[in-house]
Amino acid sequence: MSKTALITGATAGFGEAIARRFVAEGWNVIVTGRRKDRLDQLVLELGGEARAIGICFDIRDEAATRAALGSLPLEFQAIDALINNAGLALGTGMADTCDLAEWKTMIDTNITGLVTITRLLLETLVARRGLVVNLASIAANWPYPGGNVYGASKAFVRQFSLGLRSDLSSKGIRVTSIEPGLSESEFTLVRTGGDQASYDRLYQGANPLQPEDIAETIYWVSSLPAHVNINSLEVMPVSQSWAPFQVHREQTA
Q1: Among 150, 199, 203, 219, the one annotated catalytic
Q2: CA within 13 Å, CB half, 146
Q3: What is the pLDDT of residues 115-165, one digit of tens each?
Q4: What is the C-alpha to C-alpha distance for residues 217 and 208, in angstroms, rounded to an integer?
C-alpha cells in the first residue's frame, strides 16, 4: 500500500519539487497552498487524484486549516509524513527600519501556521508511526544583518523540531529539521518584493542549491529505516561557507 505525505507550501520551489520527488517514488501526496490554480495544475502533472490531491487554504488561518484537513477524502486521511515547507521571508532591512506587519506575517506563517498543522495531525502521525520534516534554515544557527525575525522564526522551527523529537521518541515518530543555505527559488523574489535584479545578483556565479536538491535530501530522510532519525541537517552549496564576524568600527576624526 502506498504511503501518503502532506506537503505544505507546494505551489512553487521546494514544496513543488518535494511533491514531484515523493510521487516518483510511489507515494501519494496532499499538496497545500494559497494559489488554487497552481495546486490544480500540479495535481494534474502528478497524475491526478489517483496520486495527488490539492487543498487550498492560508496556513495562518486555524479555522481554514481545520476545515481543509477535515475535507480530505478517506483514501488520503492516513498521513505518514508531514513536510512543513510553507514559510517566507519578507524584507532585508535592519531591525530599526523594518515593517512590523511584515514581521508579524513571518511569525504567523513560519511559526504559528507550522505548529497549528503539526498539532492537528499529531494523533494521525502517532498512529501511523510517521515522520515530521520541518524546513528551517541555516539562518536558525548563523545570524546575519537583515535576518532578524526571519532567522528567529527559523530558530524556533529548529528548536520546536528537537522538542517534538524529545516528546515523541517513545511513539516511534521521526522528526527532522532541514536547514538549507543559499537556495535558488521564488522565495527570494517574495523576500525582495519581486526585485529581479537583486535575485540575479544574489545567485550569479554561486551555483546555489536547487529545489530538487532539498527534495532529494528530504526523500532520503524519509527512506531511512524506521529506527534511524536525522535530528537536524544543515545543507549548503559548496560555494557557501561561514563569513567573518561582523565588526562595527567607529568613525575617527
Answers
A1: 150
A2: 7
A3: 999 999 999 999 999 999 999 999 999 999 999 999 999 999 999 999 999
A4: 15
pLDDT above 80 (res 1):
no
The answer to whether residue 174 is domain-embedded is: yes
219 counts as catalytic: no
Strand order in the sheet with 4-7: 52-56, 28-33, 4-7, 81-84, 131-135, 174-180, 232-235
For residue 86, what is the domain's CATH number?
A: 3.40.50.720
Residue 140: all three cell numbers together: 536558525
pTM exceeding 0.90: yes
CB atoms within 10 A of CB 104: 14
- Domain presence at residue 196: no
Tally the domains of the chain. Answer: 1
In a domain, 200, yes or no: no
Half-sphere exposure of 141 (CA within 13 A, CB side): 17
Q: How does pLDDT run across 12-28, given as a tens digit for each residue?
A: 999 999 999 999 999 99
Place of cell 541537517: 233
User: Could you give phi then psi for residue 249, rounded to 5 degrees?
Assistant: -115, 130
| C-alpha pair distances (Å), 206 with each of 76, 140, 189 | 40, 21, 17
C-beta separation of 243 from 143 below 8 A: no
pLDDT at 47 over 90: yes
Instruction: Quote the domain boundaries for residue 151.
Output: 4-180+209-235
